[in-house]
Design brief:
Elements: H1 2-46, H2 54-75, H3 84-88, H4 91-122, H5 136-139, H6 141-168
Helix pairs in contact: 1-2, 1-6, 2-6, 4-6
Length: about 180
């Protein structure tokens, strides 16, 4: 159990650091996206001369912003969830169901991560339509997104295993899911 606690602690610290950095960069990307869109509005409606690149650049900023905060949203349980069955089950059965679903999510996130890496590699063959940048750098957001979500998912799996093992031994356990942690 000590090794499990150490692993959870290290993974939680790593996830918090990644999420803090991601959140900071995401705010910069939101500001850059808004400024890019405002520039396009000004050029299109005031100067009557629309620029060819702002929509695509703003879209890339939005994609990266989402990719950088998806892991944190997953960790905090901010995605839409249907928990009717989970709340109706006995605590132990609900914990086992949650662990099973988290293990399935691990497989799905791993597959999405590897597909994202392949997509990133293929992106070097094409360039963005309105500016000279390989699409690979935009596509890199996918493995970053799924990689951070996979790290969070592994933390959640370990937390749930800790809960199940402690409940099995009659010990009380508090989950370290990050919901109560300050970043």
């Amino acid at each position: 159990m000590v090794y499990l606690n150490v692993a959870i602690s290290l993974l939680a610290k790593t996830n918090r650091a990644i999420q803090k950095a991601g959140r900071s960069v995401a705010w910069i990307l939101v500001a850059a996206m808004v400024l890019t869109i405002l520039l396009q509005v000004f050029c299109r409606y005031v100067l009557n001369n629309a620029l060819p690149w702002p929509e695509e650049v703003a879209r890339a900023f939005m994609i990266w912003m989402m990719a950088l905060v998806a892991g944190e949203a997953y960790r905090e349980g901010s995605f839409v969830a249907i928990d009717l069955l989970h709340s109706a089950l006995p605590e132990r059965v609900a914990a086992f169901l949650k662990l099973t679903l988290l293990l399935i999510a691990t497989l799905v996130l791993y597959q999405l991560f590897t597909l994202g890496l392949e997509f990133f590699q293929r992106g070097f063959r094409t360039r963005a339509a309105s500016f000279q940048l390989s699409r690979a750098w935009i596509y890199l957001a996918m493995p970053v997104c799924f990689g951070t979500m996979l790290l969070v998912n592994i933390e959640l799996v370990l937390d749930e295993m800790k809960l199940l093992f402690s409940a099995k031994n009659g010990q009380s356990s508090e989950l370290n899911t990050g919901e109560n942690n300050e970043c």
